[in-house]
Amino acid sequence: MFKSTRKGYMIMLCCTVIIMVVFICIIRINFSQLSNFHVLNVKSLLAPACGHIGYIITESKTIDQQIAEIMTLMNCTIPQKDTMYFNETTSAIDSKAIILNYKPNYCLGDTLIVQVEMFNYLGKRKTYGGDFLQARIFSPKLGAGASGRIKDFNNGTYHIYFTLFWKGSVQISIILMHPSEGVSLLWKGRNMGYNYISFTGKFLNKNQEVHTKCGFYLNSQQEKCKYLDRKYREVFYCIKLPAVPCEAFISLNSQNTRYTYLTNANKTLFS
Ligand SMILES: *[C@@H]1O[C@H](CO)[C@@H](O)[C@H](O)[C@H]1NC(C)=O
Ligand SMILES: *[C@@H]1O[C@H](CO)[C@@H](O)[C@H](O)[C@H]1NC(C)=O
Ligand SMILES: *[C@@H]1O[C@H](CO)[C@@H](O)[C@H](O)[C@H]1NC(C)=O
Ligand SMILES: *[C@@H]1O[C@H](CO)[C@@H](O)[C@H](O)[C@H]1NC(C)=O
After folding, report:
1. Which residue segments constitute the domains of the chain, with CATH numbers given?
2. pLDDT of 216 higher than 70
3. How far separated are the first and last CA of the chain, in Å rounded?
4. pLDDT tens sequence across 48-90
5. Which helix (H) or strand (E) element contains residue 77?
6. Pocket of ligand 4 (CB under 6 A)
7. Is 220 exposed, middle or buried (0-12, 13-18, 19+ CB in 10 A)?
8. What are the tens digits of pLDDT across the range 181-209?
9. What contacts 85, CB < 8 A, 6 or more positions away?
10. Ligand 2 pocket check: which of 263, 270, 271 to mutate, most ligand atoms within 8 Å of Cβ?
11. Ligand nearest to the backbone CA of 88
12. Ligand 4 binding pocket mutation candidate from 113, 126, 153 (most atoms within 8 A of CB)
């Protein structure tokens, strides 16, 4: 069954893979989820127009340049498709997943490759990428799980690479968290303002704790305390409380608000 070259240390542990592809749309729109998405979940090829942007941030660039480059790079991975009919958006139900390198058994450490083909609600192939997928293998009996590495070909096809880390059967789950059109809307909304999160600053007034509204942008004529992050050149404000010096700041609480930049029509993508 196996070539003998690796016989000495080849552990004859084989994994039977049970494929169970689950597509679920998950409803949750908030700022923190969006940031998780950028950091962890999707790797997209750059759109051609964005190809010239360098990955390497050198010390000689100013912080502003570095931030602008990162933002542009993120912007390039997100399709600018925020106006369209719902029936043209990615449908989990109409999409397909197949195993590219199917074998009855795999060895520990092998890579299992799954190809995902995305379709819209009209049954037409998607022709661009950017869908937010979450791919996992897991074995409930063992309590084991691992995520897959996603490659987005920007043409509606995705390859997902799973390393088989443990012995036994594994199940596969591929979830469409948001269609690319939804991602595009969330990204646009994220850049429209700061209203998704409200901040409350805690100050010490003699022996008493007092609270006041804070934020990156405060629409208020009241006197404000201004806090500057010199390195990242960000300014943060708190409404100044009478007779409490700005230096008496202790800590900050944040809370997700129910604010949305999406229209009701847009929300159909997330329900
Ligand atoms: C992203 O790119 C689009 C189109 O090129 C542009 O209109 C938009 O302002 C950019 N957004 C950000 C946050 O850079
Ligand atoms: C989002 O809402 C705007 C305004 O109603 C609309 O023009 C746009 O097509 C919507 N986008 C999606 C993807 O539904
Ligand atoms: C897609 O949805 C739009 C708006 O509801 C509708 O006008 C259009 O006819 C639909 N397209 C098809 C092919 O059903
Ligand atoms: C998508 O792109 C990949 C890589 O370039 C290619 O192998 C594949 O055939 C393309 N799929 C379609 C449907 O065009």
Report:
1. 32-189 (2.60.40.10), 193-270 (no CATH)
2. yes
3. 49
4. 345 544 455 556 778 888 888 999 998 988 888 767 889 999 9
5. helix 63-77
6. 153, 155, 157
7. exposed
8. 999 999 999 889 899 999 999 999 999 99
9. none
10. 263
11. 3
12. 153
Number of C-alpha atoms within 13 angstroms, CB side, residue 118? 29
Assigned token pair, 87? 């029936």
Q: Which residue has the tokens 């096809």?
A: 157
Identify which of 69, 80, 81, 187 to mutate to test ligand 1's pocket (most ligand atoms within 8 A of the CB): 80
Q: Which residues line ligand 2 (CB under 6 A)?
A: 82-84, 181, 185, 263, 265-266, 269
Question: What tokens does 241 get?
Answer: 């409380």
Tokens coding 237: 């404000």
pLDDT tens digits, one per residue of 138-159 = 999 999 999 999 999 999 999 9
Degrees (nearest 5) of the Cα angle 246, 252, 256?
135
**Cβ of 122 less than 6 Å from ligand 3:** yes
